[in-house]
Design goal:
single chain; about 400 residues; alpha/beta; Aspartate Aminotransferase, domain 1; Aspartate Aminotransferase, domain 2; 2 domains; 7-stranded mixed beta sheet; about 15% strand; globular; binds pyridoxal-5'-phosphate; Aminotrans_V_dom; pyridoxal phosphate
Amino acid sequence: MSAPLRAHWGLDPKVVFLNHGSFGACPTAVLQHQSELRARLEAEPVRFLGREVEPLLDEARTGLAAFVGADADDLAFMPNATSGVNTVLRNLRFQPGDELLTTDNEYNASKNALDVACAGMGAKVVVAKLPWPVPSPDAVVDAVMAQVTPRTRLLLIDHITSQTALVMPLAELVRRMRERGVETLVDGAHGPGMVPLALQELGAAYYTGNCHKWLCAPKGAAFLHVRKDLQAGMKPLVVSHGHNSPRTDRSRFRLEFDWTGTHDPTPFLCIPTALRVVGGLVPGGWPEVMASNRDKALTARRYLNTRLGQDTPLCPDTMVGSMVCVALPEGAPVRPEPPLYLDPLHVRLFEEHRVEVPVTPWPKAPQRHLRVSAQLYNTPADYEALGDALEALLR
Ligand SMILES: Cc1ncc(COP(=O)(O)O)c(C=O)c1O
C-alpha cells in the first residue's frame, strides 16, 4: 500500500495521524521551498517585499485560480478561512429584522462571526436544523430551503462540515438561494484539495477556502473568492495603502487585499509548490489524490463501522470526501475526570495509544462520534490501529 508516501511528510512516526482535517500537514519538500523563500526575503527584505513579491503573488494566484476554477482577479489571499468569513461579514450591512441563515452544522468560529455581525445591526440569525443521520443531499437542501423567508439576506454554509464531515450539496443550494434572491457565503475551509472546485461556475457570492488543509500548503495560506459584481467597495479586515493608491494598473480589490501590512507572504507563494508536489505523488495527479483519499475514507468507514457494530452509515457515500464520521456506541465508558474541553476518549486515544483522531459529541452528548481523515500518507494499518485502540478503550 502507500506507506512510502508517508516519507514525504515529517509526521511523527510514533503517532497514528488520522486528523489531517484539523490543521492539514505540509510535505517536507514544500516546507523546504518555503525556507528558501524566507531566506531570500531576509537576504534583502526591501527588494523582496517592495519589488519582487507582487509578481510572485500574481504567479501564485494564477496557479491557485486554475486549480479552483476561478478568474485570478477574483481571488484575494487570506491567512485562513476564519479571516475570509470575517472579511465578508464585516463588509455587509444589514437592516434590523433581516435574517441571516445558517445550519446547526456550521463551524463554531464562523457561526460566532455571524452572531457578532448580526448583533451589531439588529439582524437575526436563523439556524436550519439538518437531519442526522443524513438520509440524502436533498434532505439537506429541503431543511435549508424551509427556513428561507422574504427577509433572508444571506446563507452562511460550510462546503464540508467540520464536526460531521458532510460534503454539502453546494451547487444546488447556491442555485436555489439565488432563485430566491439570497446570496451565499461558503466556508470552504476543507474544500480545496478535498473536492474538485469550479468557483466561477458555482456562482456563489463569496467562497473562502484553506490551502493549508487538504491542499497541503504551509500554515497561513487561504483565499477569498468574491464574485466580480460584489468586489467594488469591498475592504480587507485591515485597511492599508491600497485604499488611496493612485495606481490604475490593477483593480482596487487587488490593491487593497494584496497588502495589509508587513507579513510573511511565503505561505501564499508556496501554493503552486504544494500543488505540484502533492499532485506529483501519484500518477493521476490531483484527481487521483482526491479520489484515492475518498476511497480510503469510505473503506475506513466500512471497517470501523464493522468493528464498532454500527450497521448504518451516518450519511450517503455521495456526501463523503476525505473525512468520515463514525458513531461511537452509546454509553461507551469514559474516564470520569474530563480534561479541559477534549472528550476523555480523545485524550486516551492519544495518550495511551498514540492515535490522533477527534472525538466529538454530536448531535449532543452523550452521543459521540469520531471524525476520521484519509490522506495519502495513511495506510490500512492506521485504521486497524484505531480499531484496536477503540476496542481496548471501549471494552
Ligand atoms: C468548516 C471550517 N471552517 C473554518 C475552519 C477554520 O479554519 P482556519 O482555522 O484555518 O481559519 C475550519 C477548521 O477546521 C473548518 O472546519
